[in-house]
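User: Assemble these into one structure.

Assistant: Restating your components, then the assembled model:
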Amino acid sequence: MSEPMVLAENVWKSFGSNVVLKGVDMRVEKGQVVVLLGPSGGGKSTILRCINHLEKIQGGRLSVDGTLVGYHERNGKLYEMTTRKVAKQRSAIGMVFQAFNLFPHMTTLENVTVAPIRVKKQSHQEALEIGTKMLTRVGLADRADYYPSQLSGGQQQRVAIARALCMQPKLMLFDEPTSALDPELVGEVLDVMKELAETGMTMVVVTHEIGFAREVADLVAVLDGGVVIEFGPPSQVFDNPHDPRTAEFLSAVL
Amino acid sequence: MATTADPGKPPVAQRAQRPPDIKSVPVRHYGTWVFAAIVIYLAVAVLVSLAKNPNMEWNVVGEYLFKPLTLRGVVVTIELTIIAMLIGGIGGVVLAVMRLSKNPVLGVIASFYIWFFRGTPVLVQILIWGFLGALYPTIFMGLPFMGIIFGSWETSAVIGAFAAAILGLGLNEAAYDAELVRAGIISVSPGQSEAALSLGMPWGMTMLRVVLPQAMRIIIPPFGNNTISMLKTTSLVSVIGGNELLTRLQTVWGQTFQIIPLLVVACIWYLALTTVFSIGQYYLEKHYGKGHSRKSEAPKKQKKQPAGLATKLENGASAIPEEHR
């Protein structure tokens, strides 16, 4: 078997005295869609942010595509990466946020092309072409010249997905992408994510959409108290959970 | 009972029509009218007394308002203001970014700078730059303590009155603008820099492309305020013979004793310049406010889309990158 896309081994993370991750183990193979579930404060978002090195882990090992996140290893010793190297690592990982975080001072097209032009050094022509393709892909090509404030929440989140895809990432992270949306707008975002999963993109998704997890996920991980209490295919996790806490959580959300 | 059977109500279709606008007698604000009358009465009284006062010497005001001497002073005042604000603005951004950076050395330098320049009167700073020659008669370029000197000049030749004025005003302004820029940067939601970082932008690019343009919206109004303040603070450089508007008029009234009319000339010019700068501020605010109004119209026709792109897309091109198809 080839290198896993994401490999977390006994990952620990704390904010001050508050220990959020207490030894998380997780393995995401290339092309897999893994959904992270669990009660709030369980560490789902934190592990996602650690994968992108927006947060630094304090213990264990975390690697993406066979490379440690944020560190070089030489002769068994860890060396912190320079911020430039970290930036390079991040540019291959797409992230979609709960609050969209589109750049409000840029139009939709500028939002999706700024990083390819500035970070990947693509030509304007190329970036524009890929950007328009991606906007077409999420069904928003006709909104290219709109500012984010002129779009609905669902449209903004679809632009945010297009923005991440324009960097042609090998891994996409979704941090509660539909939690800030009005109920009638959730579907359009999930549809885009579903299509993306069908193209073989490796995805790690934090969500409360059980239906999406059941339908799209290859694996579901349930995090509670900073550890993975359940990890397996959706059918097993939802219909036949090992841990009583999983059943408790599921009965609360379903 | 069915609604159609109710004879008292018109049919539904008719009721949906928009009724004519309400016509009513508005509330009369008599107090406002009385107050306005009193204010106008007092204002006219003040103006008449000023106009009739022989000490105003309106003819002198008219004589000096557009004299070449006055106009040259106005030009110097504008130059001083703009250059000092450029130094202040750029210096302020650099200092604010230094203060917010993770590099502790840069942070300490910026904090010390801001502490020193905010902590001493700007008049004192202008005087120090003006009389720097008394402290260091010559300036040399080279490496300290090593005896390597590339060249040396007389201080008064390098730093004339204008340069001293610029240094005094600009460096002081930078300290104030630094705090203003920092406030603007802090006001931008952390999610914005996280989004930029997660796209692979390094920290500097994140600042330049994402955070600062958004901070500008917050920074511009107080920066405009500082610019107008600077316009008048330039008059302080009269202490080192700065040759701006007030200094020039001062030398005139030193000989002619026409103090009041010349002060009126100065006020008229400062008011005029303030008005012009305020208009400039309005347009800057409009520029950096883009994307922040829901009311803004749908954008104009696309112009950037390269020809042929639309047809290419219609041929069923998937937007997913090659390797993921």
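The interface with chain A takes residues 189, 191-192, 194-203, 205, 209-210, 213-214, 217, 288, 290-294, 296, 298-300, 302, 304-306, 309, 313, 317-321, 323-325 of chain B (CB under 8 Å).
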